[in-house]
Amino acid sequence: MEDWGIGFGYSGNGCLALARLVDTLLDDITAPAVRDSDPEAPRTLFELLRDTPSDGATTYTRAQLLAVRAG
User: Of 8, 16, 61, nearest to 42 (Cα)?
Assistant: First the structure.
């Protein structure tokens, strides 16, 4: 479908969108899904999610996410 959405691969934006969503939900768990017009998440949060191993499951606590977001 030709529209804004989460994409993956070389030109994908999946980690950027996920970082935005996590950043938003850390402030308000009832927040709506992210939109392309939302501000970018902190770079440190994006990098954590981008570099998370993809083989298996990884769990981060709220405290860990807040610490990474704070830098």
Answer: 16
